[in-house]
Each structure stands twice: as C-alpha cells, then as structure tokens.
Description:
With 138 residues, the chain is α+β, with helices and mostly antiparallel strands. It has one domain (32-129). Helices cover 17% and strands 27% of the residues. It contains two helices and six strands, in the order ββββαββα. It has helices at 62-71, 116-129; strands at residues 19-21, 27-29, 36-44, 51-55, 91-99, 102-109. The strands form two sheets. The chain has a four-stranded antiparallel sheet with strand order 4-3-5-6, covered by helices on one side. β3 (36-44) and β4 (51-55) form a beta hairpin. The longest helix has 14 residues, at 116-129.
Amino acid sequence: xxxxxxxxxxxxxxxxxxxxxxxxxxxxxxxxxxxxxxxxxxxxxxxxxxxxxxxxxxxxxxxxxxxxxxxxxxxxxxxxxxxxxxxxxxxxxxxxxxxxxxxxxxxxxxxxxxxxxxxxxxxxxxxxxxxxxxxxxx
Length: 138
C-alpha cells in the first residue's frame, strides 16, 4: 500500500492532516470547524529587524478568532496600495489571515495599527507566547 502523503509532508491535495474539505468546500478541521490561521510580520524599527508571529487557534477558540478577523477593514489595507513613508524607525506590519479557503492580506504603517487591527495583532502575538486569547478578560 502506498503512502498518500507527499514527500514534503502535505497530503496530496495540500491540506494539512488536521483539515479536510467540508460539503460547502471550506477547509475544516476534523471536527467540522472552519480552519483558521493568522500570521503577523513586523518589519522596521530602530534595527530594521523582521519579526513574525503565527496563531492557529484551537477549535473552541475559532469563533472568537473569526470575529477578530472579520472586524478588520481589509479593503482599506490592501498590500498593493502605496504606503507613504511615515517617519524613521517606525514599524510596518503585514497581516495574513486564512478562514477556511478565504485568504486575506493587509499591509499597515505603524500608525494604522489601532482598533480592530491592534486587537487582532495583539491576539496573534499573545497566542504565540502563550498569553491571553481572544475573548478572555484583559
């Protein structure tokens, strides 16, 4: 019997072993919840360093994460739009989110990271470091 896993560890349809396609075509976890993943990359600052955080919430947390993602104004932060220089040593942010098959990306200057963007970025950073999760008391 042959192993259906590709040499790079992905299943033949390039979905992780934890996910599958639902009847609606959305990528879902084994228990039927839409798979969610968010990556935040920060560049710039005094030393010009790049830092990346990633969150892939547990099934029980998925609805709170979907709400955080949906609250952000994605159209206003299109990564293809020009971003004017905003001063020396300030950060630039990139946010990539996937809910099932829907992928969204945003590019933000540091002053734009407020409101729902700040909430989402803080949640991703906190999730990677084991801090509080969305929906938990602050």
